[in-house]
Amino acid sequence: MTSSAEEVDRLATWEDRQVGIHRVVPYVGLAVGALLTTAAPAPVGLSLAPHLLVAAAAACWITWFVTLHPGWATRTGLMTFYYVGLIGFGTVLVLDSPWYGFFAWAGFLHAFVLPGNWRFAGVGASAVLAATAQGGGPPASLAHWLLWFVLLAFNLGVAGAVTWFGTVADRQHANRKRLVEELAEANRRLAETMRENEGLHAQLLTQAREAGVIDERQRMAREIHDTLAQGLTGIITQLEAAGQARDRRADWQRHVDTAIALARESLTEARRSVRAVRPEALESARLPDALAELAGRWSTITEVRADVSVTGDARPLHPEVEVTLLRAAQEALANVGRHARASRVGLTLSYMEDVVTLDVRDDGVGFDVTGQPASRAPDGGYGLTAMRQRVAGVGGELAIESEPGGGTAVSASVPALAGGAG
């Protein structure tokens, strides 16, 4: 049995061979054999009428199975039946007259309707008929038998070689056709995959856009809290203090001047935040100096002592890391000023090999860490949330230790990522 691909290929080969010589040869062979047999009949054979009837029947056989129904070439059993009939007609005609050896060649050409290696059997049967016709009829003597075997070997060699190369060519054609079909299927799957990837890419772009919007909103929320909210809180505090010091001209003016300075600083920082620019303190100074300046301004406003110490080898860090530590210090000091009622604050910046840590400790009233820290903050505790988001955003960790009456310690540890000059 042959596979469906081989059947389709065999049909294509057979249809190709129906054009031209492969279609004409059987009829020409019958016509030439009939004409020569009529003009020069063999000494021993059928009478004139029977051999013409057999030739006509053979022509009808070929016409019905091949000419009128070329699509039957894929029906293996039916074509095998046709070929057996073809050889049968050829045997009768060749035994009647050697001139029908011209018709015997149709067996070589039409052997391709047989499946697989059966076509070689068909070629062998056709070679027997051709050798018998070429030898002038069935062998009748030893010399005749020798001649017949020589003719048989010649026909088998030539026709077998042609059939072999034809079979190889058919198989190569089938393989090429199968490869083309597989390539077409692979291209189809690739096209489907590309369409799926386009959809996935569009989905990822949408998700990335949405994530970018969320990140930008969170960034703006943190920046507003770190600039406008804290600045406004400081301004309100200074204006309230100025209101209480109306009778003391010097104190009133100091509080008003401080409020104006805070307003200008907050406005500048808000503009820089909108443009996603580093804080001004880090543009003109290194991180330890920026922390010292921040602590000094905070002490001036709150009248609470703030000490800054640096351990380890101070070095420039990635800009985002330095901004994170500066904002963490700013938020921690703001919380101390609003809630701790502390008399002293210490800021320690520790440079280690892989980590940089900022510790902010106060001696204030403290709070219950296991309770609700948000109760310390009138803004609902967003400052601590923003601080955690900033520290986590650079791969760091934020820890808070406190207890009622025992002060508070805030520690931010971030990777020591190298960067440009601070």
Walk me through the structure.
Residues 403-422 are annotated as: Disordered. It is found in: Cytoplasm. It catalyses: ATP + protein L-histidine = ADP + protein N-phospho-L-histidine. Its cofactor is [4Fe-4S] cluster. This is Oxygen sensor histidine kinase NreB. The chain is an alpha+beta fold and 422 residues long. Among the domains are: 4-138, no CATH class; 285-422, 2-Layer Sandwich (Heat Shock Protein 90), CATH 3.30.565. The chain has twelve helices and five strands. It has helices spanning 4-17, 21-39, 48-67, 76-96, 101-109, 118-134, 142-244, 249-274, 280-284, 287-302, 319-340, 382-393; strands spanning 305-311, 344-351, 355-362, 397-402, 408-415. The chain has a five-stranded mixed β-sheet with strand order 1-2-3-5-4, covered by helices on one side. Strand 1, helix 11 and strand 2 form a beta-alpha-beta unit. The radius of gyration is 52 Å and the shape is rod-shaped. Residues 373-380 have low confidence and may be disordered.
CATH fold annotation of the domain at 285-422: Heat Shock Protein 90
CATH level-two architecture of the domain at 285-422: 2-Layer Sandwich
The radius of gyration computed from the alpha-carbon positions, rounded to a whole number of angstroms, is 52 Å
Helix content: 55-70%
Tell me how many strands there are.
5
Report the top-level CATH class of the domain at 285-422: Alpha Beta
The computed structural class is: alpha+beta
Overall mean pLDDT: 78
Approximate shape:
rod-shaped
Low-confidence stretches: 373-380
Largest sheet: 5 strands, mixed
